[in-house]
Input
Amino acid sequence: MRYIHLKSPDQFLEIKLKNAELPILKVIGAKYIEQWLNKHPKRILELVKEVYLAHSQGRTVNPDSYFLRIPNSDTDRFIALPAVLEDEHPIVGIKWIASFPHNVVQGIDRASALLILNDRRTGYPLACMEGSAISATRTAASAVLGAHYLHITPGHIQQLAIIGCGPIAYRTLTLLVQLGWRIGGLMLCDTVPERAELFRKKCSRLDVPCRLAHLTETIQSSDMLIFATSAVCPTITQVEWFKHAPTVLHMSLRDLSPEIILAGQNVADDVEHCLKANTSLDLASKNAGHSRFIDGDIADAITGRIVPDPMRTRIFSPFGMGILDLAVGREILATADHRSILEMPDFFPTPFQQEHITHY
Output
């Protein structure tokens, strides 16, 4: 507590103030974040599971994602994902992520992002973190969690197919391997053969036998499929390709035709969120005139209210929720090696109430 005396023409005004310490803004870059993510695969999966359950219990705020489209471009976009976690350690934040698919032609990543964490009590920003690695890893963890609860043989995949050989698919594959999933074989398919070949070479680090294949063979021969493309509308329309009832991790959300969706057992991370933005679920809902073909949210699968159907293709569609980024970012911030953090103690201005005042 302190006193400031404001001298006026006719009186002395005494104001009692409580000085709250301003936070020191912390900046954490990709190098340390990547190290942390690779070191804690089990914890990441636990965090994603905990957040899904908290969401089902109403302990989160996760509004619609906000899309900023770029004029004269069908693919380039920015997405803002604000969110609140109201759990034991409340946190507020936002992920601001750009998606520019043509970046890969220039040798840089499609996605770039920042994650901002804010103090729940004061609103002040606490940290600015590289967000694309966190985003990709929490997306991968979401997919792996869906696989655990929907695949007929959890922990074992006879033949895994990857359609769309980019960072998201590689993160998912890596996380499966880190968590001990046994993968008998891996088939790769991409519209750009060079990307598939690069992916194949990267797989040598994971000790998973893999080969490039055509789309038809890739889908029909695999008991688990990962779709991680940049498709903006359905390109897979052949219902008969899925007659063997595989598990589908539909991470890119827009590859499958409404007919395939309607024939499958569908689970989303959040049903309401997935029924928008022309996702395959959204298109299927418009075609059917209802959304009863969606069995429920991933929390329903976690708690056993949804049982995987071995006779139908099980499709998990994670739209992506900002609360997942918050949970992972908060954990990294709480456990980070201080030598890997850039601290900016003078980032915020002196509060108006605390400015030194002598007289007018």
In short: The longest strand covers residues 77-85. Residues 73 and 100 are 10 Å apart (CA to CA).
